[in-house]
Write a structure and sequence with these properties.
102 residues, alpha+beta, GIY-YIG endonuclease
Length: 102
C-alpha cells in the first residue's frame, strides 16, 4: 500500500504579530517544535522570536507546497494578513497544546 505524504506551508509570527515567517515542511509538528525551541539559534525565526503557528495549508505533492510557499513570500503583508484572518482571526497559536505532557 502506498502511503500518501503530506507537506505543509505554514506561517508563524512573534508574540506581537509584527513579523511573519513562511516555511514549508513535511512534519509540521517537528518543525514548529524546532521554531519554539530555537533549534537553529541563528535562523530568521529565532532572531525575531517567531514561534507562534498562526496558519498552515496541507499538500500531497512537495513541489506544489514549495510553489505555494514561494507565492506567499511574494505577497504584500496585508494579503498575508487577510489569508490568516480567513481561518484564524484572533491569530491564536494553533500549536499551543501540541506539546503538553512531553
Amino acid at each position: 500500500m502506498l502511503v500518501q505524504a503530506t507537506y505543509y506551508v505554514y506561517i508563524i509570527t512573534n508574540k506581537n504579530n509584527s513579523v511573519l515567517y513562511i516555511g514549508v515542511t513535511n512534519s509540521i509538528r517537528r518543525r514548529v517544535y524546532e521554531h519554539k525551541t530555537k533549534h537553529n539559534r541563528n535562523s530568521f525565526s529565532a532572531r525575531y522570536n517567531c514561534n507562534k503557528l498562526i496558519y498552515y495549508e496541507m499538500f500531497e505533492v512537495m513541489d506544489t507546497a514549495i510553489a505555494r510557499e514561494k507565492e506567499l513570500k511574494k505577497w504584500q503583508r496585508n494579503w498575508k494578513e487577510d489569508l490568516i484572518n480567513t481561518s484564524n482571526a484572533e491569530w491564536n497559536d494553533l500549536a499551543k497544546d501540541w506539546y503538553e505532557g512531553e
